[in-house]
Specification:
The protein is an all-alpha fold. It has four helices and no strands. The longest helix has 48 residues.
Protein backbone atom coordinates (compact mmCIF):
# COMPACT_ATOMS: atom_id res chain seq x y z
CA UNK A 1 0.00 0.00 0.00
CA UNK A 2 1.38 3.36 -1.04
CA UNK A 3 1.54 6.24 1.46
CA UNK A 4 -0.47 9.37 0.76
CA UNK A 5 2.70 11.39 0.34
CA UNK A 6 3.88 8.92 -2.33
CA UNK A 7 0.62 9.45 -4.20
CA UNK A 8 1.06 13.19 -3.73
CA UNK A 9 4.56 12.93 -5.16
CA UNK A 10 3.29 10.96 -8.17
CA UNK A 11 0.64 13.64 -8.78
CA UNK A 12 3.29 16.36 -8.39
CA UNK A 13 5.53 14.59 -10.91
CA UNK A 14 2.59 14.36 -13.32
CA UNK A 15 1.99 18.10 -12.94
CA UNK A 16 5.66 18.78 -13.74
CA UNK A 17 5.49 16.50 -16.80
CA UNK A 18 2.29 18.21 -17.95
CA UNK A 19 4.05 21.59 -17.63
CA UNK A 20 6.94 20.33 -19.77
CA UNK A 21 4.49 18.93 -22.32
CA UNK A 22 2.63 22.26 -22.49
CA UNK A 23 5.91 24.05 -23.17
CA UNK A 24 6.79 21.52 -25.86
CA UNK A 25 3.39 21.98 -27.45
CA UNK A 26 3.85 25.76 -27.42
CA UNK A 27 7.23 25.49 -29.16
CA UNK A 28 5.81 23.05 -31.73
CA UNK A 29 2.94 25.45 -32.45
CA UNK A 30 5.40 28.34 -32.91
CA UNK A 31 7.55 26.29 -35.30
CA UNK A 32 4.55 25.11 -37.30
CA UNK A 33 3.18 28.62 -37.76
CA UNK A 34 6.60 30.07 -38.57
CA UNK A 35 7.07 27.49 -41.33
CA UNK A 36 3.55 28.03 -42.66
CA UNK A 37 3.92 31.82 -42.65
CA UNK A 38 7.26 31.57 -44.45
CA UNK A 39 5.73 29.31 -47.06
CA UNK A 40 2.71 31.51 -47.69
CA UNK A 41 4.27 34.95 -47.31
CA UNK A 42 7.83 34.35 -48.63
CA UNK A 43 7.47 31.52 -51.13
CA UNK A 44 10.75 30.26 -52.55
CA UNK A 45 11.31 29.17 -56.13
CA UNK A 46 10.71 25.52 -55.18
CA UNK A 47 7.78 25.34 -52.74
CA UNK A 48 8.30 21.71 -51.83
CA UNK A 49 11.07 22.19 -49.26
CA UNK A 50 9.19 24.82 -47.24
CA UNK A 51 5.99 22.80 -47.49
CA UNK A 52 7.84 19.77 -46.14
CA UNK A 53 9.21 21.86 -43.28
CA UNK A 54 5.68 23.01 -42.41
CA UNK A 55 4.41 19.44 -42.68
CA UNK A 56 7.17 18.06 -40.43
CA UNK A 57 6.53 20.77 -37.84
CA UNK A 58 2.80 20.05 -37.95
CA UNK A 59 3.52 16.35 -37.34
CA UNK A 60 5.54 17.36 -34.27
CA UNK A 61 2.64 19.56 -33.09
CA UNK A 62 0.19 16.69 -33.53
CA UNK A 63 2.48 14.42 -31.51
CA UNK A 64 2.84 17.08 -28.78
CA UNK A 65 -0.94 17.51 -28.59
CA UNK A 66 -1.40 13.75 -28.24
CA UNK A 67 1.28 13.65 -25.54
CA UNK A 68 -0.58 16.39 -23.68
CA UNK A 69 -3.82 14.42 -23.89
CA UNK A 70 -2.03 11.43 -22.32
CA UNK A 71 -0.50 13.70 -19.65
CA UNK A 72 -3.92 15.11 -18.79
CA UNK A 73 -5.38 11.61 -18.41
CA UNK A 74 -2.45 10.42 -16.28
CA UNK A 75 -2.66 13.53 -14.14
CA UNK A 76 -6.38 13.00 -13.55
CA UNK A 77 -5.79 9.39 -12.49
CA UNK A 78 -2.91 10.21 -10.16
CA UNK A 79 -4.60 13.16 -8.50
CA UNK A 80 -7.74 11.06 -8.09
CA UNK A 81 -5.73 8.35 -6.32
CA UNK A 82 -4.11 10.96 -4.10
CA UNK A 83 -7.40 12.56 -3.05
CA UNK A 84 -8.93 9.12 -2.49
CA UNK A 85 -6.01 8.25 -0.22
CA UNK A 86 -6.48 11.53 1.65
CA UNK A 87 -10.19 10.77 2.14
CA UNK A 88 -9.33 7.33 3.62
CA UNK A 89 -6.90 8.93 6.06
CA UNK A 90 -9.49 11.50 7.11
CA UNK A 91 -11.97 8.75 8.02
CA UNK A 92 -9.40 7.12 10.30
CA UNK A 93 -8.55 10.25 12.27
CA UNK A 94 -9.62 10.21 15.92
CA UNK A 95 -9.32 13.88 16.80
CA UNK A 96 -11.84 16.28 15.33
CA UNK A 97 -9.47 19.28 15.41
CA UNK A 98 -6.86 17.47 13.33
CA UNK A 99 -9.47 16.06 10.94
CA UNK A 100 -10.98 19.54 10.49
CA UNK A 101 -7.59 21.07 9.68
CA UNK A 102 -6.76 18.27 7.26
CA UNK A 103 -10.20 18.61 5.57
CA UNK A 104 -9.64 22.36 5.20
CA UNK A 105 -6.22 21.77 3.70
CA UNK A 106 -7.62 19.14 1.33
CA UNK A 107 -10.31 21.60 0.22
CA UNK A 108 -7.62 24.21 -0.46
CA UNK A 109 -5.45 21.79 -2.45
CA UNK A 110 -8.47 20.47 -4.34
CA UNK A 111 -9.55 24.01 -5.26
CA UNK A 112 -6.08 24.92 -6.52
CA UNK A 113 -5.79 21.73 -8.51
CA UNK A 114 -9.30 22.01 -9.99
CA UNK A 115 -8.52 25.52 -11.20
CA UNK A 116 -5.28 24.53 -12.94
CA UNK A 117 -6.67 21.24 -14.25
CA UNK A 118 -9.74 23.00 -15.63
CA UNK A 119 -7.55 25.47 -17.53
CA UNK A 120 -5.43 22.58 -18.76
CA UNK A 121 -8.49 20.92 -20.27
CA UNK A 122 -9.78 24.20 -21.73
CA UNK A 123 -6.43 24.88 -23.36
CA UNK A 124 -6.20 21.38 -24.80
CA UNK A 125 -9.77 21.71 -26.06
CA UNK A 126 -8.68 24.86 -27.92
CA UNK A 127 -5.54 23.21 -29.32
CA UNK A 128 -7.36 20.30 -30.97
CA UNK A 129 -9.45 22.35 -33.43
CA UNK A 130 -6.43 24.53 -34.25
CA UNK A 131 -4.37 21.44 -35.05
CA UNK A 132 -7.21 20.11 -37.22
CA UNK A 133 -7.44 23.47 -38.99
CA UNK A 134 -3.71 23.43 -39.71
CA UNK A 135 -4.01 19.83 -40.94
CA UNK A 136 -6.73 20.96 -43.37
CA UNK A 137 -4.47 23.73 -44.66
CA UNK A 138 -1.79 21.10 -45.19
CA UNK A 139 -4.25 18.90 -47.12
CA UNK A 140 -5.28 21.83 -49.32
CA UNK A 141 -1.67 22.74 -50.07
CA UNK A 142 -0.70 19.13 -50.59
CA UNK A 143 -3.02 19.00 -53.60
CA UNK A 144 -2.42 22.56 -54.79
CA UNK A 145 1.16 23.50 -53.94
CA UNK A 146 1.32 26.43 -56.33
CA UNK A 147 1.55 30.20 -55.95
CA UNK A 148 -2.20 30.42 -56.60
CA UNK A 149 -2.80 27.67 -54.05
CA UNK A 150 -0.78 29.64 -51.50
CA UNK A 151 -2.73 32.78 -52.31
CA UNK A 152 -6.00 30.90 -51.81
CA UNK A 153 -4.86 29.85 -48.29
CA UNK A 154 -3.72 33.31 -47.11
CA UNK A 155 -6.96 34.15 -45.31
CA UNK A 156 -7.00 30.70 -43.67
CA UNK A 157 -3.41 31.23 -42.50
CA UNK A 158 -4.35 34.66 -41.10
CA UNK A 159 -7.20 33.00 -39.21
CA UNK A 160 -4.86 30.26 -37.93
CA UNK A 161 -2.43 32.92 -36.67
CA UNK A 162 -5.20 34.75 -34.82
CA UNK A 163 -6.45 31.57 -33.16
CA UNK A 164 -2.90 30.43 -32.38
CA UNK A 165 -2.17 33.72 -30.60
CA UNK A 166 -5.02 32.98 -28.16
CA UNK A 167 -3.83 29.41 -27.64
CA UNK A 168 -0.24 30.58 -27.11
CA UNK A 169 -1.38 33.04 -24.46
CA UNK A 170 -3.18 30.21 -22.63
CA UNK A 171 -0.19 27.85 -22.97
CA UNK A 172 2.21 30.55 -21.75
CA UNK A 173 0.19 30.93 -18.54
CA UNK A 174 -0.61 27.24 -18.15
CA UNK A 175 2.92 25.78 -18.14
CA UNK A 176 4.20 27.79 -15.14
CA UNK A 177 0.91 27.25 -13.28
CA UNK A 178 1.15 23.48 -13.75
CA UNK A 179 4.77 23.58 -12.64
CA UNK A 180 3.97 25.71 -9.58
CA UNK A 181 1.14 23.35 -8.63
CA UNK A 182 3.50 20.42 -8.94
CA UNK A 183 6.04 22.14 -6.69
CA UNK A 184 3.35 22.94 -4.10
CA UNK A 185 2.11 19.35 -4.09
CA UNK A 186 5.58 17.81 -3.93
CA UNK A 187 6.98 16.28 -0.77
CA UNK A 188 10.43 17.26 -2.02
CA UNK A 189 11.21 20.79 -0.93
CA UNK A 190 13.39 23.18 -2.87
CA UNK A 191 16.01 24.91 -0.77
CA UNK A 192 17.17 28.37 -1.75
CA UNK A 193 20.58 29.67 -0.80
CA UNK A 194 20.60 32.33 1.86
CA UNK A 195 22.67 35.45 1.06
Amino acid sequence: MSSGYNKSQMAASSLQMAAADAQLESRALDSTLAALNDLVNKPPVDLRFQFQQFSNNLDQLIAAARRNDVSARRLGERIGAYFESWDKELVGMNYEAIRTRSEARKAEVTGQFDSVYGRYHETQAAVRPLVDYLADIRKALKTDLTLNGLEAMKSAVTNANANAAKVQTALAKLAPDLSASGTQMSSVTVQTAQP
